[in-house]
Design goal:
membrane; 118 residues; elongated; mainly alpha; Integral membrane protein
Length: 118
């Protein structure tokens, strides 16, 4: 796994959670630009999943595949579910949902780095 790519994902998630956190403090609902920000994070996660698949297929790293792909799939699911929830919930709580989802993906990313041994 490429450490710079993992750090990029974590940084993007932390930035998204800070942005949504600002909306929580301001008592505002999620806006479409924040959902596009989540889509950017999701795109980087997809790139990372492809890179992980290629590196694991070449056999360069001996990692528990079930655990690794459990984290990868969970990361790929969390933000779209949160985005759908935030889109449906047009109150301040939509911003809270986005904060929690972005922080969850950031922590999953750090755990993924530990599993990979980076």
């Amino acid at each position: 796994m490429l450490v710079p790519l993992a750090l990029l994902v974590a940084a993007l998630c932390l930035a998204l959670s800070a942005w949504a956190g600002w909306f929580v403090v301001a008592d505002r609902a999620v806006v479409l630009r924040q959902l596009w920000g989540g889509a950017v994070v999701e795109g980087v996660l997809l790139v990372q999943a492809v890179v992980l698949a290629v590196v694991q297929a070449t056999g360069d790293q001996d990692v528990d595949g079930v655990l690794l792909w459990g984290y990868v799939v969970t990361q790929l699911v969390v933000l779209p579910v949160a985005a759908a929830w935030a889109f449906a919930e047009r109150t301040r709580w939509s911003s809270v949902v986005l904060v929690v989802a972005a922080l969850t993906v950031a922590f999953l990313e750090l755990r993924l780095m530990q599993i990979w041994g980076a």
